[in-house]
Amino acid sequence: MADFANRIVRAAKLDVSLYEEVEADQSAMGQAMLVVILSGIAAGIGMIYQGGFVGIFVGTIFALVGWYIWAFLTYFIGTKLLPGPQTRASHQELLRTIGFSSSPGIIRLLGVIPALGQIVGFVASVWMLMAMILAVRQALDYTSTWRAVAVCVIGWVIQMVLLTLLAAIFWGTAGQV
Fold first, then answer.
1. Where are the alpha helices (DSSP H) in 13-111?
2. Contacts 24+ apart (CB under 8 A), 63-66
3. Which residues are CB-neighbours of 64 under 8 A, at least 6 positions away?
4. Rounded CA separation 82/66 (Å)
5. Is residue 176 part of a domain?
6. Which structural domain range is residue 76 located in?
7. Is residue 175 part of a domain?
8. What residues contact 67, with CB distance under 8 A and at least 6 apart?
9. 164 or 142: which carries more pLDDT confidence?
């Protein structure tokens, strides 16, 4: 357990060697998933006044689904559309590194303090984005951080379009049923 906690701290510190380590460690998938779950639970607890206990559960499920989809998009964009000369990666490697990039999201637990909610949420989002870019750069063996930024931006745009379409399908037609 100490190794797991150490990995969370190193991921949050943006330790490049941690991302290389979990990329190579095939047994780290469960740990990566647990980081995503902890981050999702922390966000739910931090927003308990808005979402209640159901929000914690739903938020955690969405965090897990989003993690999987995001890793797939990143894998496809990074290895098929924007590969670097030495890019060699699998979907599982991206799941592990991106899972650990959720580590900074655990601070969202502090959002339960009313005066800190929005500030903590913003800081966590920026911090997680920085960790995500680092995770993508390492998993895809990029030498350029800008290439990793491009992969993340393209993936984010695609994910937002997909989520908007799903919301329109499910919630836009809900009143017509």
1. 16-24, 29-46, 48-76, 91-100
2. 63/36, 63/37, 63/39, 63/102, 64/33, 64/36, 64/37, 64/40, 66/159
3. 33, 36, 37, 40
4. 21
5. no
6. 2-169
7. no
8. 33, 36, 95, 98, 99, 102
9. 142
**DSSP structure class, residue 82:** S
Report how far Cα 176 is from the mean position of its chain's Cα atoms: 34
pTM > 0.85: yes or no: yes
Please answer whether residues 14 and 22 qualify as being in contact, where contact means their C-beta atoms are separated by less than 8 angstroms. Answer: no
pLDDT over 70, % of the chain: 97
How deeply is 39 buried, as exposed, middle or buried, from its count of CB atoms within 10 A (0-12, 13-18, 19+)?
A: buried
Q: How far apart are CA 42 and CA 6, in angstroms?
A: 18
Q: Is residue 23 part of a domain?
A: yes
Residue 55 lies in a domain: yes
CB 64 within 8 A of CB 87: no
What is the C-alpha R_g of the chain?
A: 17
Provide the domain count of the chain: 1
d(CA 8, CA 37): 13
Report the candidate in 56, 58, 65, 119 with the shortest Cα–Cα distance to residue 95: 65
- The residue behind tokens 């047994």 is 27
CA distance 40 to 75: 22
Model confidence over 83-102: pLDDT tens digits?
A: 999 999 999 999 999 999 99
The pLDDT score that the predictor gives to residue 133 is 97
